[in-house]
């Protein structure tokens, strides 16, 4: 069976990514009805699904159903973070963070698409930086960072996930996307956007608390 790989499926990736964000938004709204005791199990389920998506992607492409189930659960687990900053910093801070994320994501995506440079070399650096962020996040659970430390952590997060936006769009431009890869690439972009949003939201939340 012939599998076509080209940039013609890039619009499909963008549409699927946009729908994933919409489903995540519905999930966040549904989070208001979820008992607090369920957020940790849902977060664990989200992590397991993410591992399944990336460890088994070489054997079989993920389905659209898998993607939308994951993004809905992700939206639910995002609710406590959004709710916390909405209550402590104000809903306007959350909206401002979302708007800033959209502008940064779109700007980097456009640059990655029109640039003639190949940014594939960033893959190793970004993975190392991501693993460092994960390690610091685990450390933060047991020994919470100061507000200054969390601010620095969040700024690094913005750089790393902006780098992933650059890397993913540039990779699709240079190496193309097959029809079977559309859900997985949309998942990559969704994770880039959400993690970038959370990092920017933390920054705005910390800065607003210092005013």
UniProtKB/TrEMBL annotation:
Keyword terms of this UniProt record: Membrane, Transmembrane, Transmembrane helix
Principal location: membrane
Gene Ontology terms: cellular component: plasma membrane
InterPro entries to which the protein is assigned, alphabetical: Bax_inhibitor_1-related, Flag_MotA_CS
Highest taxon in the source lineage: Bacteria
Its membrane topology: Multi-pass membrane protein
CDD domains found in the cross-reference section: BI-1-like_bacterial (cd10432)
Subcellular location: Membrane
Residue ranges of the TM segments: 12-31, 37-56, 65-87, 93-114, 121-143, 149-167, 187-207
UniProt record similarity statement: Belongs to the BI1 family.
Name this polypeptide is given: Bax inhibitor-1/YccA family protein
Source organism of this protein record: Neobacillus niacini
């Amino acid at each position: 069976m012939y599998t076509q790989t080209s940039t013609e499926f890039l619009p499909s990736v963008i549409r699927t990514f946009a729908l994933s964000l919409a489903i995540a938004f519905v999930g966040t709204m549904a989070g208001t009805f979820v008992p607090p005791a369920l957020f940790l199990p849902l977060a664990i389920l989200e992590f397991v699904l993410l591992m399944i998506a990336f460890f088994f992607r070489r054997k079989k492409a993920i389905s659209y159903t898998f993607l939308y189930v994951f993004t809905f659960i992700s939206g639910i687990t995002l609710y406590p973070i959004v709710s916390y900053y909405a209550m402590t910093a104000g809903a306007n801070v959350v909206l401002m963070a979302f708007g800033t994320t959209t502008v940064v994501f779109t700007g980097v995506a456009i640059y990655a698409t029109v640039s003639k440079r190949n940014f594939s070399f960033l893959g190793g650096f970004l993975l190392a930086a991501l693993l460092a962020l994960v390690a610091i996040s685990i450390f933060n659970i047991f020994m919470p960072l100061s507000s200054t430390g969390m601010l620095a952590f969040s700024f690094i997060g913005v750089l790393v996930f902006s780098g992933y936006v650059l890397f993913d769009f540039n990779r699709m431009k240079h190496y193309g996307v097959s029809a079977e890869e559309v859900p997985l690439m949309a998942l990559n972009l969704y994770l880039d956007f959400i993690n970038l949003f959370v990092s920017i939201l933390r920054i705005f939340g910390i800065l607003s608390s210092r005013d």
